[in-house]
């Protein structure tokens, strides 16, 4: 049976209003009491996730910024990989004049935006983590976990995806966390590689892991784990990329918690 459970947050473990529901919290606590190791695996910032973890009330490793950061249950940083400063500068230069796209930067302790977007507040009601503005003419370049770009038009952002991939090649990792959020990390960064590192730190392997996700930034993790489960509301690209992976229910119905209760908690 699996010893490590890794789950994405938005669109997967969290409800549509981006919160941990009481039933999910109860299942995760019972899972911990049974001796299972839970891992939050998300594109979110580690400060944000630490608040969600505190609300759940279990010790857990955190894979954040799509694998660019890994913290243990005591908030010790155990893995970190930054985007090269020159690449950060190039990425921002390529997009800064596009007023239809919001540029975000995650650094070790900061979430920075090139312009205010109050719509984002709904994602962080539970944690209270918030952003500050930066000057796109003089952006911070050091200690950058990821740069990401938001516009509510997936097809528009796929043009940037293609441009970044063609220009930077294997110097970066590029993935959509949602259809409207395109993310760029350092080369080799993914939730899958981070999960492998967490498993080894705990004395296990990927064969001991089960994972849940819904975004293109989850594909490596869902492929790497012994069993990777896709949410029914996942983007079609995820299902097309992983056609043999099992699809479960919606985050609105707390499908992750229901699966865990049925298959890990109620197993004799």
TrEMBL record:
Cofactor(s) required for function per UniProt: Mg(2+)
Protein keywords: Hydrolase, Magnesium, Metal-binding
One example GO MF annotation: hydrolase activity
Xref: Pfam families: Hydrolase_3 (PF08282)
Record-linked Gene3D superfamilies: 3.30.1240.10, HAD superfamily/HAD-like
Domain of life assignment: Bacteria
PROSITE patterns (alphabetical): COF_1, COF_2
NCBIfam families: Cof-subfamily (TIGR00099), HAD-SF-IIB (TIGR01484)
Family classification: Belongs to the HAD-like hydrolase superfamily. Cof family.
Protein name: Cof-type HAD-IIB family hydrolase
């Amino acid at each position: 049976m699996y010893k490590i459970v890794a789950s994405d947050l938005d669109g997967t473990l969290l409800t549509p209003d981006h919160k941990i529901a009481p039933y999910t919290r109860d299942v995760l606590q019972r899972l911990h009491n049974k001796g299972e190791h839970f891992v939050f695996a998300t594109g979110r910032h580690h400060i944000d996730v630490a608040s969600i973890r505190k609300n759940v009330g279990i010790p857990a490793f955190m894979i954040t910024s799509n694998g660019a950061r890994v913290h243990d249950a005591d908030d010790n940083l155990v893995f970190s990989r930054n985007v090269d400063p020159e690449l950060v500068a190039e990425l921002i230069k390529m997009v800064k004049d596009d007023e239809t796209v919001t540029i975000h930067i995650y650094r070790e302790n900061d979430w920075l935006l090139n312009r205010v977007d109050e719509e984002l507040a709904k994602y962080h009601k539970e944690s209270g983590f918030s952003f500050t503005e930066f000057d796109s003419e003089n952006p911070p370049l050091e200690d950058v976990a990821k740069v990401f770009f938001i516009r509510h038009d997936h097809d528009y952002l796929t043009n940037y995806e293609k441009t970044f991939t063609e220009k930077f090649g294997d110097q970066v990792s590029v993935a959509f966390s949602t259809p409207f959020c395109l993310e760029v990390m350092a080369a080799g960064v993914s939730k899958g590689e981070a999960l492998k590192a967490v498993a080894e730190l705990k004395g296990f392997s990927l064969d001991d892991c089960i994972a849940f996700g819904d975004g293109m930034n989850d594909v490596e993790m869902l492929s790497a784990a012994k069993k990777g489960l896709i949410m029914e509301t996942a983007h079609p690209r995820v299902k097309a990329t992983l056609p043999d992976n099992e699809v479960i229910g919606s985050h609105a119905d707390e499908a992750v918690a229901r699966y865990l209760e049925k298959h890990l908690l109620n197993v004799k």
